[in-house]
Prior knowledge:
The complex is a heterodimer.
Chain A: E1 3-4, E2 10-11, E3 20-26, H1 33-41, E4 49-55, E5 62-66, E6 70-74, H2 76-79, E7 82-88
Antiparallel strand pairs in A: 1-7, 2-7, 3-4, 3-7, 4-5, 5-6
Chain B: E1 17-23, H1 29-37, E2 42-44, E3 53-60, E4 63-69, H2 81-92, E5 97-103, H3 107-119, E6 124-129, H4 131-137, E7 140-141, H5 143-150, E8 154-156, H6 165-177, H7 188-195, H8 200-207, E9 211-212, H9 221-229, H10 235-277, H11 282-300, H12 303-319, H13 321-335, H14 340-348, H15 353-359, H16 366-376, H17 382-395, H18 401-423, E10 434-436, H19 445-479, H20 490-497, H21 499-502, H22 509-517, H23 523-533, H24 537-547, H25 550-562, H26 567-577, H27 580-607
Parallel strand pairs in B: 1-4, 1-5, 5-6, 6-8
Antiparallel strand pairs in B: 2-3, 3-4, 7-9
Helix pairs in contact in B: 10-11, 10-12, 10-18, 11-19, 11-23, 12-19, 13-14, 14-15, 14-16, 15-26, 16-18, 17-24, 17-25, 18-25, 19-23, 20-22, 22-23, 25-27, 26-27
Amino acid sequence: MKTIINNLRMTLSELKPGKLALVQHIETSTETNGLVNRLEGIGIIPNKPIMVLRQAWFGGPLHVRVGSTTEIAIRHQEAKTIHLQPIEV
Amino acid sequence: MNCHQSETAVNGVKPRKRVALLGMPNAGKSTLFNRITGASAFVGNWPGITVDLLQANVNVNGEAIEFVDLPGIYDLNGFSEDEKVVQQFLNKFAVNFIIIVLNATQIDRQIRLALQIKALGFPAIILLNMADEAKHYGVQIEVDELSQRLAMPTFLMSAKYGKGYGRAYQEIVRQLTTEKPSFQIKNLNEQLLENGSILPLEIEAILAGIVVMPSNFARTFTAKFDSILLHPIFGLPLFFLGMFLVFQLVWNVGLPSMDLMSYITTWIQNFILEPILKVFPLLIQNFVINGIWNGLATVASFVPLIVLFFIVMAISEDSGYLSRAAYLMDALMGSLGLDGRSFVLQMMGFGCNVSALMGTRIMRSKALRLLTMLTITFSLCSARLQVFIFIIAATFPNQNGATVLFSLYILSFIAALGAAFILKGQFPNQEPFVLELPPYRFPTLKQVIMRGWGEVMHFIKRASGFIVFGCVAVWFLTNLPLGATGLNTFGGQLGQFLSPIMQPIGIDPYLTLSLVFGFIAKEVVVGALPVIYGMNADNLTQYITDTVTWTQAYSFCIFCLLYTPCLTTLATLFNESKSWKYAAFSVVFSAVFAWVISFIFYQGSLLLSL
């Protein structure tokens, strides 16, 4: 049973490891135009479940699972452009 | 990943029909391409396309068909070099149909590429690859229903193990035997703007009810492995430990294999070559034995070692661990204006700098590409490995060889980081870092053997070109003018001419001469030494042991590691950057860098009277 916790908005950069969230939208700006394409290609589209598996040392990238079978490394800077809606399982 | 590929094969008749393979990175597209085309692939030049593409002419039902392997891309709308190449290709060249290769495990997102192709109106078939992995993950797909919804023939298969390939290939044949005019899109960019965006709802609609994905919390084999290998504290030490073990293996297995090879080449020299040559004048005998054979035989003795090395490289690349290394190293690389992918490419440069340089095409920012390419030229490639093993084996006679070799790999890495640190201000970039981490995979025995075989063929090609040329040139320089010996020959004079530069870093005129010719290819350094000294490898090793100190040898290794990359690397630097200034800068920068580091080491060691 998935319940959406309302009134809570965060970015991927703030999501705690092991917690699931749904992608809400990706922030767009003129510089990040190409980035949005890449993120969509990798499966980060609205309503997609997303989870942080772990974080590298020294502020390094996040290890993120997109859906259930795609895993990526992404820096905090890029993760900040991905807005999420946390859910409880 | 063969390096130094440049020729364009012309296979008689120009095929009338063309099929393009398109897919996302890590979808197994190359494995499928190899399965379809066998060993007949070659690198082709396409007018208006900025990079060479892998292609093959395959006989299908008595007709030659052209198969083209397009670079792996995430999005037809994308902006990276690879994505632009695919856009240029589809815009310029007609195709009979496209084979869309998707990773079945990730159908939930990869289907997007198929929908883009469909929206543009291309005739296409879909091969859902990696059926084995999808099954393992618990991904279920109703293929027939999906095929109907997409109105495209769709097949589930495994290119790696061949399961389901027969049916897919039958469909490819069927498509080719029906007479249809080839498809040429009109103004791709306009069409992409109009139809290229795929809404999330479209993806949901096409997959609804026919695709079951596993739980988001699934604890896979990969997840268990990652919790150790990507551990925040142990991850990096484990990586370096793994690297050290690899070089132990190369050293301990590779060196005995060299003895075996030199036993074989000595036998050929004594029982075949010399009896035949007896009828010729002494000068000819000298030329063939010392000018060509000794050099070639010395380089050939490294073949088993290089094959072993590339097998280890193939396993680490195919296993998925290298992208984990990018994750582990990104924080450090980021602070130097690079990113985790730069590190992976430096590692791939341990095999061959050329293919690693071409690998930078995945980067979107030109500045990041140029900076990464400069650092790759410091990667200790397999050709340099041969030089170092030869020199280290002669000058570090105790058991420290593998450790000394490992220290050169560490130096190679530190030099790359140092160069980035010095130059990062010149190449500022804002490239985002988003990298896929594929699951751990085991390469099949066939893949590994194919790779090893490819390297042997590659070596023979280089040996018959560059290396013979280098050895012959060195022979002439060290034997002319006639009657002169040692430092009085042209080669000796060239070495002496450079000695004001090379003396302070402990490199004598003879070794200098080998480095001059190492500019052609680093194997030539190894090949040139027997030619310069007029000895076979065994005698030469003893001679170097007696005449070169370990500090001189190590200084020689440092210089050889860091100075100007080989001719092919230089040509690739120019091709990829399209800038003579950049290529020239790389030559000068690396030569100065090499000299300074060697100078610090050698003079430092003299001061400390090591």
